[in-house]
Task: inverse folding
């Protein structure tokens, strides 16, 4: 395992969860792409530290006390894998977007906490993150936050949150 590269990947996650987003310029390559941004606001779909910072703002708007507890890291060449648990508390609506950048769904805040496993994959270039993608337990997140199975009252709140998000998109 290349400890230095794994440390940079873990640091990028820590910065996104709770750090100073300006620090992303030190660990995220100017051409970096987040392959997970397809369901995120359009500002997250670009390249470089600004796009990664947009993802962090999107996550932090929905989830307080966001953290990543890293269990394992593995490196092979320029590829780093990080197995972790993401946890936090939903304090704002979680808004998902379609391929056109339009609001696809909005999950209003439940105030509940969650802890779900992730596997993050990073490609490194010049000592910085140049590519990122992940596998997440989205069903576990939805279950822990009370999004599924939805009650009739929560379905109504979802419809209302979606209307509000469409009026005020995070572009």
Result:
């Amino acid at each position: 395992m290349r400890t230095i590269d794994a440390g940079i990947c873990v640091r990028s996650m820590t910065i996104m969860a709770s750090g100073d987003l300006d620090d992303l310029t030190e660990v995220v390559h100017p051409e970096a792409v987040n392959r997970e941004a397809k369901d995120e606001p359009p500002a997250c779909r670009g390249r470089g530290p600004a796009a990664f910072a947009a993802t962090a703002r999107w996550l932090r708007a929905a989830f307080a006390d966001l953290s990543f507890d890293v269990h394992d890291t593995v490196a092979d060449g320029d590829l780093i894998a990080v197995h972790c648990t993401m946890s936090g508390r939903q304090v704002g609506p979680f808004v998902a977007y379609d391929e056109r950048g339009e609001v696809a769904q909005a999950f209003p805040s439940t105030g509940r906490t969650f802890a779900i496993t992730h596997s993050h994959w990073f490609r490194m270039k010049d000592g910085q993150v140049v590519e990122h993608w992940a596998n997440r337990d989205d069903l576990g997140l939805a279950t822990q936050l009370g999004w599924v199975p939805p009650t009739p009252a929560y379905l109504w709140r979802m419809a209302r949150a979606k209307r509000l998000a469409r009026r005020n998109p995070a572009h």
In short: The chain has a mean pLDDT of 94. The longest helix spans residues 3-18. Residues 27 and 138 are 27 Å apart (CA to CA).
